[in-house]
Amino acid sequence: MKLFRKLGIDLGTANSVVWEAGVGIVLDEPTVVAVGIEDRKVLAVGNEAKLMLGKTPEYIEVRRPLQDGVVADYEVTEAMLKYFLRQVMGAGWFIGPEVMVCVPAGVTQVEQRAVLDATLSAGAKKAYLIDEPLAAAIGAKIPVSESFGNMIVDIGGGATEAAIIALGGVVTHKSLRVGGNKLDQAIIEYVRKKHNLVIGELTAEMVKIKIGSATKLKRPEMMEISGRDTVYGLPKSLMMSSDEVYEAIIEVLRSMVGVIRETLEITPPELVADIADRGIVLSGGSVQLRNLNKLVTSEIGVSAHVAIEPQFCVIRGTGIAIENLEVYRRALR
Ligand SMILES: Nc1ncnc2c1ncn2[C@@H]1O[C@H](COP(=O)(O)OP(=O)(O)OP(=O)(O)O)[C@@H](O)[C@H]1O
Ligand SMILES: [Mg+2]
């Protein structure tokens, strides 16, 4: 057993992923925690807690301790990190690991401090922070230290973050606290207004993944959804079409694409020219939405492509950074 261990952690709004230096991804679970309402005890974390979403008795509350990419509930985040470290480190470790955690480029000092403190009090010996867009770019195999500009756009569960990377650092960036969760919410709203049907978050997410698309499909697809009728309060099912899903989410998608446009607007012209040549790289779980790259390409006029395993770009980059601390030290926060 190794005495000194190094970990990378991507604390996402939707999913948390842990990387162990020399090993790779060792944990990947939803960022969800179930706590007792009275005693605030943690009852379940990750997969187990996500299954409880929307189904708990009144003395249990299921929480997402990160909101819009930043720590919203400090105590619960710390408890969750403790659980993750225990899972990964196994029983009986004496020396805490060195941990690299990524944070959105736009976080405030206070938000940064919260992540560092939670990591240290969960048992890390040392904690470092890296900008998420830089981590995403490293993980997407973009040659980040070149003098050419590269654009990476990460769309996760809680946020959309666009950044231009050159010479090993973030040159310009913009972010919006809108991610895949907002797409789910838009579907919930649409179904409630149009069909008087209340559906849960998990159902909405499933609809998005199965029949969602960022452009209208030539051959529309259908899916059955179930929930509660808002008028009669009784169970109801109906068929939803991919055209309806498109209609429900397109405005949210446009606001995500807007972040890319705003970032280009504040970027020096030489670098914008590089982006026009090299295209835009997309990372994050939400870029797996069908045809999202097509929407970006047509709205921005620059070709966009989805990175390999986009949902793991950030953790891969964070892991590579902790494994090569000396190379990336200058770029850390
Ligand atoms: N095939 C798919 N199509 C569309 N969306 C998907 C697909 N698979 C996963 N998602 C969405 O990806 C999002 C999670 O992505 P990711 O794990 O990158 O988020 P995160 O890192 O936790 O969030 P953030 O970076 O915003 O804090 C969820 O909203 C999920 O619904
Ligand atoms: Mg993320």
Low-confidence stretches: none
Gross morphology: flat
CATH class membership of the largest domain:
Alpha Beta
Within CATH, the superfamily of the largest domain carries the name ATPase, nucleotide binding domain
Number of domains: 3
Q: State the CATH topology of the largest domain.
A: Nucleotidyltransferase, domain 5
> Which structural class do you get from the secondary structure elements?
alpha+beta
Strand order of the largest sheet: 3-2-1-9-10
Number of strands: 18
| Gross CATH architecture of the largest domain | 2-Layer Sandwich
Summarize the main sheet: 5 strands, mixed
What is the typical, i.e. mean, pLDDT?
A: 95
End-to-end Cα distance: 30 Å
Q: DSSP strand (E) fraction?
A: 25-35%
Rg on CA atoms, Å: 20 Å
Strand/helix succession: EEEEEHEEEHEHEHEEEHEHEEHHEHEHH
**Proportion of residues in helical segments:** 25-40%
Summary of the model, kept short:
This protein folds into 3 domains: 6-134 and 314-331, ATPase, nucleotide binding domain (Nucleotidyltransferase, domain 5); 148-178 and 253-310, Nucleotidyltransferase, domain 5 (2-Layer Sandwich); 180-248, Actin, Chain A, domain 4 (Alpha-Beta Complex). The protein has helices spanning 47-50, 74-89, 109-121, 132-139, 180-195, 201-211, 242-265, 269-278, 292-300, 313-323, 325-328, and strands at residues 6-11, 15-20, 24-30, 33-36, 42-45, 60-63, 66-67, 70-71, 98-103, 126-131, 150-155, 160-166, 169-176, 197-198, 222-229, 235-241, 280-283, 304-306. The protein has a 5-stranded mixed β-sheet, with helices on both faces.
